[in-house]
């Protein structure tokens, strides 16, 4: 099992990119931001530069390319141009550029390899500190080879299906990324009705009283095993609650039993 370091990344997918939230995140010890070229109607980089450009040197910033105003594309020329544009729009070179949801359209092995090579070359050219792949559904990527990425970013948490969990682990084994990051630990929102129907605190070792939100978030570091989890919020109180969740320990025996139950309930193909 990978060793987790309990890092929290502030994801900007659902964020308004408010300066006060970025300042509060840094004050809470969060030093990583994750965005994408298409977030905030393709204005994320420019809005960050304009409203918080002086704060960005305090953070490690990762972003993604693959979605363009005209749609998703793995075309090498478009990806190369997209990677070159990031630094200009952001006002600095990003620490990582990730290929955004390459499973769109179930790419051929050669297409995926070429797209990843473009980002690997961008990193070698100094356009970014590193590169990787961000995948919402990694199943179509199993069996496809890529240059070794610095980062693999995937969904994590109690709402991730066993098929996606196992596909992720196959990619980790075959691609050997330096880091694995999780995202969307609440499956969209802590307001989802599922969080009122069961108590995720059973996934933590006995301790003082965590909240359900904290238990669900902390469990996301083991489903699958990841080094960091990206979470988006505009609520500083919610962010503080998640930071406090790092004090709790996951019960790996319960996680193993949960995975066994997921496998037992797997729908036959």
Describe the structure.
By secondary structure, the protein is α/β, with parallel strands linked by helices. The protein has a single domain, classed as NADP-dependent oxidoreductase domain (TIM Barrel), CATH 3.20.20. It is built from 9 helices and 10 strands. Strands 1-2-3-6-7-8-9-10 form an 8-stranded parallel beta barrel. A hairpin with a 2-residue loop joins β4 and β5. The mean pLDDT is 92.
Would you identify the CATH H-level superfamily?
A: NADP-dependent oxidoreductase domain
> What is the 3D shape?
globular
**Percent of sequence in beta strands:** 15-25%
The main sheet comes to:
8 strands, parallel, barrel
CATH class (first level) name: Alpha Beta
Q: Enter the CATH topology name.
A: TIM Barrel
How many domains? 1
Could you say what the CATH architecture is?
Alpha-Beta Barrel
Contiguous helical run count: 9
User: Order of helices and strands, N to C?
Assistant: EHEHHEEEHEHEEHEHEHH
* Overall number of strands: 10
Low-confidence stretches: none
Proportion of residues in helical segments: 25-40%
Oligomer: single chain
Average pLDDT confidence is: 92
* Terminus-to-terminus distance: 28 Å
Q: In terms of structural class, how would the helical and strand content be classed?
A: alpha/beta
């Amino acid at each position: 099992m990978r060793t987790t370091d309990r890092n929290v990344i502030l994801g900007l997918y659902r964020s308004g990119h408010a300066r006060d939230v970025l300042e509060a995140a840094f004050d809470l010890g969060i030093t990583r931001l994750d965005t994408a070229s298409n977030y905030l109607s393709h204005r994320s980089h420019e809005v960050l530069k304009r409203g918080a450009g002086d704060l960005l040197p305090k953070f490690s910033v990762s972003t993604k390319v693959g979605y363009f105003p005209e749609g998703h594309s793995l075309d090498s020329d478009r990806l190369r141009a997209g990677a070159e544009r990031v630094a200009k729009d952001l006002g600095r070179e990003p620490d990582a550029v990730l290929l955004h949801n390459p499973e769109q359209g179930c790419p051929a092995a050669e297409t995926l390899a070429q797209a990843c090579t473009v980002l690997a070359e961008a990193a070698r050219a100094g356009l970014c500190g590193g590169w990787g792949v961000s995948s919402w559904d990694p199943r179509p990527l199993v069996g496809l080879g890529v240059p070794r990425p610095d980062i693999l970013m995937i969904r994590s948490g109690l709402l991730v299906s066993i098929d996606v969990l196992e596909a992720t682990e196959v990619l980790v084994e075959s691609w050997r990324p330096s880091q694995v990051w999780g995202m969307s630990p609440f499956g969209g929102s802590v307001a989802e009705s599922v969080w009122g129907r069961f108590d995720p605190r059973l996934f933590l070792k006995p301790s003082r009283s965590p909240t359900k939100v904290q238990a669900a978030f902390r469990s996301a570091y083991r489903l699958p095993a990841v080094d960091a989890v990206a979470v988006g919020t505009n609520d500083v109180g919610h962010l503080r609650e998640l930071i406090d969740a790092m004090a709790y320990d996951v019960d790996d025996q319960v996680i193993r039993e949960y995975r066994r139950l997921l496998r037992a309930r797997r729908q036959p193909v």
